[in-house]
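Hi support team,

I'm opening this ticket because the web form for multi-chain structure prediction keeps timing out on my end. I have pasted the exact lines I submitted so you can reproduce it. The total is 668 residues across two entries, so I didn't expect it to be a heavy job. Is there a limit I'm missing, or should I split the entries? Thanks in advance, R.K.
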Amino acid sequence: MTPSAKPLRLHIQNLPSENPVFHVTDQIWRDACARHPALAARLDATIGWTPEDFERAISQAELLVTWTMAAKTLFPAKAPKLRLIFITSAGLDRLAPYDWLPPGCALLNNSGVHGPKAGEWGLMAILMLANRMPFHATRQREKRWDKVYGSSVAGQVLLCVGVGGMATHTIDHARAFGMHVIGVRHSPTPHEGCHRIVTTADLDSVLPEADYVLLTCPLTPATRGLVSRARLALMKPTAGLINMARGAVVDQDALCDALDAGTLGGAVLDVFVPEPLPPESRVWTTRNLLIAPHVSADDPLTYTPRSLDVFFRNLAHHLAGGPLPNAIDLARGY
Amino acid sequence: MTPSAKPLRLHIQNLPSENPVFHVTDQIWRDACARHPALAARLDATIGWTPEDFERAISQAELLVTWTMAAKTLFPAKAPKLRLIFITSAGLDRLAPYDWLPPGCALLNNSGVHGPKAGEWGLMAILMLANRMPFHATRQREKRWDKVYGSSVAGQVLLCVGVGGMATHTIDHARAFGMHVIGVRHSPTPHEGCHRIVTTADLDSVLPEADYVLLTCPLTPATRGLVSRARLALMKPTAGLINMARGAVVDQDALCDALDAGTLGGAVLDVFVPEPLPPESRVWTTRNLLIAPHVSADDPLTYTPRSLDVFFRNLAHHLAGGPLPNAIDLARGY
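Hello R.K., no limit was hit. The queue was backed up. Here is the completed structure from your submission:
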């Protein structure tokens, strides 16, 4: 761990077809190194854009930074020295099962990057539901003036399924507006923003209390289809649903049925099955529903720089030989 | 001013055709009296629903509480003893000119009631524009998946035209999210929430700085058409417009042109010309625009009780012979 130690070989592989928002350009990398000079001095880094760039670098690389979809197309690969893959995305469900991972190599996500932006989006969605904006948008499509009133959110109940970084920032805002917050997580570990925490097994007992249900949980075998038709029926008919997790956490068809029938108040969704939504999907025209095209947590201005900051934080732990804060538990999938 | 003083005759006139949200029912009145027992003891109150009820009461009434549209249909009337009309609305532009007002009678609005609800709505609209929700709603109508990203609002510039109760609550929230706030008002009196205050005469100089323009000013001869075609052209092409004031503050046709042409980023509007919007209005289908049917500041659960609290606060000043906090300056119109 002396400055004269042999530098670690890092390869950064971009996916040119992906939105430029997610590209690690030379400039963005240099800026990140300037923010973390001591750690950057320990690295010998290459940035690749083509499959050939990857081929050339991976046999010697000890660290890899790449985007989800790039990882999916690059592996399996001969990467005998690889010890750490950092993915610039929080939800790695699209990379499961993880049998492609080289032996002894840790897989890391960029959890923590999305919090501030996602927190604003989550609060926006709550306020939109409180103010009946999905209903008004439906009436706008029908060219009908229908004076239906919303209400302040103070005292209303926000139920958060998943209480990680994205939810935590939303919860902070919701508390500032006087909301009551119930958290649902894998284990009943307390969460400082939540008035109450229950485990996923107790979801049915708290769903009827919620004015808003916010989904930010990872998609795993345990959460696939979690918000089923039966659970939607447990919600208040005035309640609103917000999905910032993954489309498959919800029975999408049952949700559309409930919204069209008016047995659920409204929904603001950022994630769907499938993505992109095909033109023939019923989701586009479902009543009392407003959609965003899977953009809630991403801030183009800050996304990639913040991701690299998370990488450097984990690199410090890696160099110190300690556990990596962003390492995925491959059995749980997050 | 002793308890044995002759009670003041108060008449409360409802408009049965108006939304029940705005009705002062017996129960709501009794609850309000219970919150202000000393003041209520000074009153001899009647509640009317029909024109006959009004006729019967008004010749003796010293105080009148009524809804905007009721006032419009009830006057001129023989009301020789009337000293105070309290309207359960903040914008009294629809009652101008005020030549119908009995001589020596003060006209009061319910300014102060709308703040908390309007503040949540204003922040919602800012976050919707930051997250491109009007754009996404346009794409939803077109059934097109178009991954366009929004951004966090920290550091962005909110320009508030009008810095009364509605704006002040929005400004408090915007500041909590790290926004920079410029206020525009009639006179350059400082406003504690604004980083900078300019007068309406300097509007053109600050419009190009704004990421969001929030309109909450009263509609007066000075503000009619204030956001003209020329001023819309001064705004950033990425900027968003929020109108919670009155439709006629904006050149609505010019706004629709700018939104359809993409020379303005988006708009979230609660007020229009005319209201209700007729089915043939181009507003319904204008791109990058989401609308609400003039409901932003009204909270059915709290609106009428809070209005009556404002009435009682003014009643206390009236009994003490002092100036009335909610009295309209008839020359300015607010």
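A quick check on our side: Residues 303-319 of chain B form the longest helix (17 residues). Let us know if the file doesn't open in your viewer.
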